[in-house]
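To whoever is covering the structure queue this week,

Two jobs came back overnight. Logging them here so there's a record in the thread.

Job A:
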Amino acid sequence: MRNFATLYFTTLLLFATQVSAVGGYQATYELVVGNLSVGKMDRSFVVAADGVYHFTSTFQTTGLAAILRKEQVTESSSGTFRDGVFAPEQYTYTRKRKKKPKHITTQFDRTGNRIDTIINNQQKSSSLPAGVLDKLIYQAALMHDLELGKPQFRYVIADRGKEKIYEPVAEGNVSIETELGTFETIKLTWQSKGDSKSTTFWCAAQFGYLPVRVLHRDEDGSETIASIVTYQKRDVDNGMDN
């Protein structure tokens, strides 16, 4: 059985909202490997009127996959979105399973101009580059850039004490059928450097360019598909669904 924590990361499930000062959402995806449903992912994103955002994502194995390997991965990102720019302040990652649990906390110290990352009680520090994002909120930044009509994308990501560059490429418009209906989407692909891994995702303008489907292809040719199954827009002021 595949490593589901790796599956969670490598799918690079890109999810965002129509980024406004008073909007938010909740959504769920189903993850499938071959003909087997292996898990679900719940996501919640909120931006308050003062520009403070909170983004959370939880993946857990389900069905047969949960019997073979019970696992849960939770990510969170908090910071600000002002003048069209995301500025993360804290990112956390927690993997719960019997073997090799992991906890990561990343603090973005803009006063001290540094990034402090703690991985299972071991700390790493590095300088804070201009415009750097974390692994979760960059996904919202990409969707925002799609909404602005930008033709090219490049993001500097702080990842476990290192910097990585993500450059997804837009490949045209495609109609995609889902449990929520048919959507006109923009197809984008991210190709890993140094190996044959790739991730393709289809982002729907109707939902502010959140992806309604994601396909990850591993080095061995195996594929994982994540498909949206629920979506609710949230009211920031009272937390009620619209």
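Job B:
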Amino acid sequence: MTGRPGRNRHTAGTRWPAGSVPAPAHGGRTGRRDPVPGTGGAAGAPPASSPATPAVAAPGADTLGSGPPAGGPATGGPAAAPVAARGAPDRLTVDVLLRLRPRLAAAGLGLGVAVVSEPHLTPAGPAEASAAASMPHRRRQEFLAGRHAARRALRAVGLDCGEIPRSGRLPVFAPGRPASISHSSGIAVAVARAPGRDTPLGCDLELRPLPRGAARLVLRDDEEGLLYDTCGWSVTALFSAKEAAWKALRGPDGSGAPGPPGNLRDLRARPSGEGLRIERRARPAHAVRVRVVPVGRGVFSYVVGRSAV
């Protein structure tokens, strides 16, 4: 997950408005769990994975996962993504994510996936080694998994990439080789764009559903109808979509607006085709199109392009 202060962020600044930050809804707690549109997920169902480091076989750099793309259209009634049995969900979660590669490739994007339990998560150079050395074990594994996922995403579009240093909490990519990274529950994903494309980059993985009460921290009054329209968007899906859009709109690699939005409520989400159109409230012309795909009881969101007014 990449949407809360204090967690492993790949964009600067806090996107929650002032106030308390909601905890994910875990099995055994009270509070409604909202399904992703079309998944038929039940309220109060157990999370797709526990926060503990997953015990799964290490995926290969470019070969793990096979089969047809997962699901149908990303919203408004997609085929439900498979849900793994509790206690061993992560292998299936990784497989579901990897099956999305053809869908992202059609949009000119490469997808990379890594898990923190891979046995050979090593730094690719001295800058990564220096950054990782100062981190607690779990954070170090997430950091290295994110870098490996980014390199896999870049290789998927035919680009080589060495180490990925950082400036503050932001990854610093080589010119012409940008990517977007996200983590959740021990799994890292990244997207990179094919050469010659100008798609703004942003992705977000959320495997622990948010409670309905978190809506006030993500949406403004003019968006709350999204929770009740025919698509039935969940709070988790809207949060994830806005996270992905936030990354794409935050700087020169996005839609050209100076500086990032202050928080997720500074972005407005509207249904658009198979996904969402997300714009900056202060600059509505700066907008992107986002797809949201069910992954177990969570979601994966990615930006597919700019959106005209």
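Note for Job B: The beta strands are 109-115, 166-167, 170-171, 179-184, 187-193, 203-206, 267-272, 275-280, 287-295, 298-306.

Please reply-all if you pick these up so we don't duplicate work.
Q.
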